[in-house]
Design a protein that fits this description.
The protein is of the alpha+beta class. It has eleven helices and 14 strands. It has a five-stranded antiparallel beta sheet with strand order 4-3-7-6-5. A five-stranded mixed beta sheet has the order 9-11-12-14-13. A two-stranded antiparallel ribbon has the order 1-2.
Length: 554
Amino acid sequence: MGTKEKNGDEEITLSAEQIVSLKKENNRNIAAFTIAETEIKNLKEELHTKEQQLRNQIDAINTTNASIEFDLEGNILNANKNFLKIMGYAAKDLIGKHHSILVDPAYSKSDAYQFFWNSLKKGIYHKDEFIAVAKNGKLIWFLGSYNPIFDASGKPYRILKIATDITLVKTQFLQLGVQAEEKEKRASELIIANKELAFQNKEKENRAAELIIANKELAFQNKEKENRAAELIIANKELKFQNEQKEKRASELIIANKELAIQSTEKEKRAAELIIANKKLASEKILKEKRKVEKLKRAAELIIKNRELAYQEKRSSELTLANDELKKAQEELGSFSYSVSHDLRAPIRAINGYTQILIEDHADCIDDDGKKIIQAIINNSTKMGMLIDDLLAFSKLGRKEVSSANINMTALVNAVINDIAIEKGENTPIFEIEELAYSHGDPSLIKQVWINLISNAIKYSKYKSETRIKITSVPEKDKIIYSVKDSGAGFDMAYYDKLFGVFQRLHSQDEFAGTGIGLAIVQKIVNRHSGTVWAESKPDAGAHFFFSLPNIKH
């Protein structure tokens, strides 16, 4: 018995055997399908397990590494948080952009870059150190790999880059390389410097030997200077004695000239009387005897007068000789002053020359202490030159002829004030000047007196908050007293006897500069004008200087 089944428009008749066979086949298919379903379920479970393992591995990679995914053309498909954080991008800045955005523009256009991507397309794995360009332009060093991802057929369809940021380590490594090169360079320089130092030490020893010789020469010159200074002191004493003798001789000469003039007048008078007497003697013969006695008397007087006249002529010759000796002494004094100046200046020029050579040619071999010593030598030699100049100026005062003229003191003092230069940083002096009385004397010398006194008042007031100077005059019977008063440092009257001495100072050189001869010059000039100079003071309470000149009304 058969069974009919329709298959489309056709009818198919199956036999019983065929039906049994089909049922058996169907049962086998159902059993096979059941087995397949079980295998599929097992495969799904295994796939799920593999996917979970893969996700765990990816999470582990994302936790510790930077990763980014590309298609085969280099377009960015995805990037993890570590990569975005390192490179400074947001995901939207990179997704869809080409890999070239992350490398140097010059490299992205090179054949090497194209070769790199062609090898990745072929499924070639790359592991190395790579340089990427962050969003801010900073170069980032990565240690990692470009990993092709293959499909089921074994063809690559994606590129996964997994890397670690080694920028800090790489930078430190490069810095160590640079430092190593610098170290080698410094070592070479140190070797050269050591050789140079050895040479400089040798030169320093040579210079030290030369300096020892120079010091011996300087010691010898200092000894000579001390000898010259001692000779100068003796010469000053001799000069003072000669000036006193000269003034004494001049006074005697004036008196002798006056006596000579009187005697010449007397001689003429006696000669006239003698003529008259002779005429009377001739005309009065009657009184001859009487006049004889008178004549003898007159003759005796005439003999006495002639003897006096002869004595006066002899005295005149002596005065002329004394004048010649005085002139010769002045010439010898000028020659001596020139010789003293020349002999003292010669070692000073030598000192300045040697010290200048040390400064110009050997400054590198001299330490700071040596330079200070050399500067001290220069300062002291300069000071010695100033002392010589002042000494010569003081010496010339004794030889200078003093002129005589009426002096407008107010105009002279104002001219001195206008000529005085005020150093930078010092107070501008405030002057209180009364109407000063006229006097008589040498204008140029009296001007020097005012210059020295006013300059001293300004100098010794420089540490005061205000520099105030008062200038006055007081006429007396036969003289006029002028004064200069300041409110400066002052001095102790216990040392008054040193005030007008040559090179005598009551303050240190560091406190107030100067040579100590200014007041000696003032005293010399005033004495030559038959006047006197004196002072009153207290320490830190100012000083009051006075000098007198003849009153022209008397």
